[in-house]
Amino acid sequence: MGLPTLEFSDSFLDSPEFRDRLQCHEIELERTNRFIKDLIKDGNMLVSALRSLSLAVQRFSQSLQEFQFECIGDAETDDEISIAQSLKEFSQLLSTMEEERKRLIQNADDVLISPLERFRKEQIGAVKEGKKQFDKETERYYSVLEKHLSLSSKKKESQLHEADSQMSKDRQVFYDASLQYVFKIQEVQERKKFEFVEPLLAFLQGLFTFYHEGYELASEFEPYKQQLQFNLQNARKNFESTRAEVERLMKRIRSAEEDFKAPSCFTMEGYLYIQEKRPLGSVWTRYYCTYEKSSKVFTMSNTENGLVNGTPEMFKLRSCVRRKTESIDKRFCFDIEVVERHGVITLQALLPITFQLSHCFNFVKKCIELVETRGITTLGLYRIGGVNSKVQRLMTKLFQVTHSTTFLNNTSHELWIHDFLCVYRCLAEPVLTYRLHKEFIKAAKYDNQKYRVRAIHALVHKLPEKNRAMLDILTNHLLMVSSHSDQNLMTVSNLGMIFGPTLMRSQEETVAAMMNIKFQNIVVEIIIENHHKVRSQIHTYADTQTHTYTHLTEMCVPVRYLVRPQTCRCRYLSLHPLGRLLGGTRDAKALYSCEAEHSHELSFPQGALFSNVYPSVEPGWFQATYNGRTGLIPENYITYK
């Protein structure tokens, strides 16, 4: 139910009903006044909370900006680079949002708090002042009225007339106060409809602007978010693959079924306890020792908390004799003689000191034939491992059976389909060889995707002939497997992740090597994806003795990335116009034009003239000067003048 109407004419009558209606308005204005005071208090608390939240978000954003991801290894994959950069992207996004929130906070006082406080003080405060004046005039008027009515009728006519005239003036003052008060009450009641609500609307509009800014930023962030999710998915897959390899290595080392020797430049190294003579007997002190067989250099380093304490002692070993058990009350002891000291040095080892497959093409071809004939659409092909005993039995049967068709006819599908998938991992020597392992890893770490692909293609041609042939067989098969990915879900990326550790595993089984598995995956993925290019290059190169030099320029990859002459010089120099390469510098001419892809390379047109040409330390490249600038040029692109 709404407030009753206040009529100006009722001010003259000043009836009890008028007073009741007036009181209803007064109560409502007081309630509004209290509500606005509470609202201002809550608004200030809200602004304070927003300011605290903003400061917290800014600190959080700054922390993201300052943190730097450090990945294991000397290089990062594209996924790792994107993930490491993501924290700075998050920080920038939060900072942008906080700038808009700051504007919201700064405007809150102007658009919300001050207008409400002004309405409460100026409008409702004016009504209160009007009420005070009205009450004062009411009291004075009725007091004067009582005195006027108590005048004796016996007074002179002039006195009575003067008293009536004064009473009329007092009544008018009272009426004016009443009218002003009624007018102000109704004015404020009407004003609060907009002057009270408008600040709230303005504040909400600021909130909407802030939220809209967030929506716009979210829309702009969406493509990056999707790419980052893809990078995270790849990183998780790489983690799962690497973790499995690292865990397997850890378990093998823990089981101690075979001696494990970490890669080292020393023949042997580890902790030894050395007997040191003291006045009251002898003590055994732990040293970290190394021995290099060719130089016979033996070093001892005193350690404290695992760190070297002081300068290591170096000796040249003269002899080493194991101590017989009955000659000393300790196990695993031996004596050494060194050139720099007289007498023997007695040492105790932690454990007894002990020291630590060629497969045919037909075998691999049989394996591939089995998969392509009977299991190429198998869901998750090559993901599920087999049982070791079944894998060994399968390999034995495959070697014993001359024709693969015989094996296909005599082997049940359930026996071999998953067990057979582990056969490739039984190869003792990886197809991409230990010798080229680091070069392939280095190529996979190039930032430029195009150069990365070309570099890997070039390295394929440094493989031994049998390895290239095996790689051709396997990658052709894996490309076929990926062509059925709609059924088996084995994309090129998934196959690279599975076969990376198989085709180019590291010779050193260390955690550092395991961290490079992600780059092994990249190498194998590139080779599979570009199999037809690599294959055409392999076949063309294998027939270089019957092909002309110009035929090489027709390959899919530029000639300068195909062959490192130092590895296949016997074939390559027979057709290379620079077959007479010796030391010193000479002048040369460009057979083809070339566009540099890196700052240390030279760009030049066909027929360009070079001076100071000599072999570079980078295989397949020359150092030369052209137009006053010195840089690298492809060896295959020039001929001597």
Automatic annotation (TrEMBL):
> Molecular function (GO) terms listed?
GTPase activator activity
Q: Which GO terms describe its biological process?
A: signal transduction
* Species lineage: Eukaryota, Metazoa, Chordata, Craniata, Vertebrata
**Where in this chain does the record put each Rho-GAP domain?**
345-535
Q: Which residues form the SH3 domain?
A: 583-641
PROSITE patterns on file: RHOGAP (PS50238), SH3 (PS50002)
Look up keyword DNA damage and say if it applies: no
Protein's name in the database: Rho GTPase activating protein 42a
UniProt lists the gene as arhgap42a
Pfam families, per this entry? BAR_3, RhoGAP, SH3_9
Q: What domain of life is recorded for the organism?
A: Eukaryota
Keyword Coiled coil included in the entry's annotation: yes
The terms describing its cellular component in GO are: cytoplasm
Which SUPFAM superfamilies has this protein been placed in?
BAR/IMD domain-like (SSF103657), GTPase activation domain, GAP (SSF48350), PH domain-like (SSF50729), SH3-domain (SSF50044)
Instruction: Please give the coiled-coil regions recorded for this protein.
Output: 225-259
Q: What UniProt keywords are attached to this protein's entry?
A: Coiled coil, GTPase activation, SH3 domain
Record-linked SMART domains: RhoGAP, SH3
